[in-house]
UniProtKB/TrEMBL annotation:
Annotated active site: C383
Origin species: Methanopyrus kandleri
Name of the protein: Methyltransferase domain-containing protein
One GO biological process term: RNA methylation
Record: residues binding S-adenosyl-L-methionine: C264, A265, A266, P267, G268, G269, K270, D288, D314, D332
Amino acid sequence: MSSLSRQELTARVFVEWEETRRSLRECVKKVLLNEGVRDHRVWGTIHAYCFELMKRLRTVDAFLEATIRNAKLFDLDPWVRNALRVGTFEMKFNDVKPAIATNEAVKIVVECVGEGPARFVNAVLYDVERLELSDVLNRAKDTVERLAIEYSHPEWFVKHLMDLLGENELTKLMDANNREPERYLRVHAHMVDPDKAILALEDDGVAVEEDPDLPFMLRVVDHDVPPVRTEPYRRGWVAYQDKASAAAAYALRPEPGDRVLDACAAPGGKSAYLYALTEGEIELTCVDVNPRRLREMRRNFRRWGIEARLRRADSSRLYRETDETFDLALVDPPCSSSGAYVRAPEAKWTVKWRHVKRYARGQLSILRGVAPLVERTLVYSTCSVTVVEDESVVRRFLREFDEFEVEEPFGFGSPGFDSWMNERYPWADRVRRFWPHRHRTEGFFVARLVRS
């Protein structure tokens, strides 16, 4: 068991994240395993603490940028920078007395860097203590920067979404992104009767309610133990899946006997829901380009009782590599994850606006690689809220593949945007968007494209 404090473990996680840019969950796992932490309660505490700091990172950094003199925050030693972040977060967002927060940060730097940098940390946090958030916000050059600091979101996100939603609704969205997300569980109806799964969860201390829109989806209402510690979860009867993610799969409307392609399948959640919807009565082919994620999907499918063909391939070239056709195909390609900030706040700080445009090019390329293989219906979805990756990609796809038309996937959710810049989307009321502040889900986009 590690003797390191919560603060030092957190600083180690953030140093690891800066070096690798892997997911926060993976970084927490690596650090805690390296430190010999085995208690799952400690894991939960450290992950939750890191999660909250990551959500507030832009605001925390703004406090530091307002106080550091003769240096730039990102030029500092990583241990110094992240000890300062932990100390600032402690006193400004975690109600820790400034003297205690400063002392913990100084101890981290003494241990990992040395006495000289520790004196610097002490001086900076002394100044941070005397700053209020209003002082930091008053330094912003314009409304976009002020909102980005106050709600801890990237400036490109604030600018893009303010143009689409207006400032009032944008602040509601960003506030929702900084709150605890709703938790949903998917029931593997091919393995267990849903009522039996619900009773078993309740016996283990997890209260759930059935979703009104989607079969086999449960919202976690309350829990005495985390759902992952329950017998239904261990047996593979249930698994976490956001409602909006499940809705993307539901939009395919699979029927028994259908040949179904999931073109960007790993780690397999949407494929699993398609399988559950038909109680396993589909021919499922799952493709992904990433071998590590394919291995993870294979392990998941064994636990979840799913039979499928798994194939490593680049779906943008799929039509050139196979003569096989499919009744239905789901394309949920890599994206900016700008709709997933509520669950993966690290995505805020790893994607820039230029990356969004690059993602859009890749998304269209995958649609081109899959569309010729689809005989009936193609669903395109992303966990992005940018028009660039959503409506604009669909518009470009329809111009190239005019044999497809947009069909409304279901009645719940919100319609898409009907215009952006100089583009028009006359079918916007037939695509669906999900928003954290409106629907208690991740931000998601779903378009059902039917071959006419």
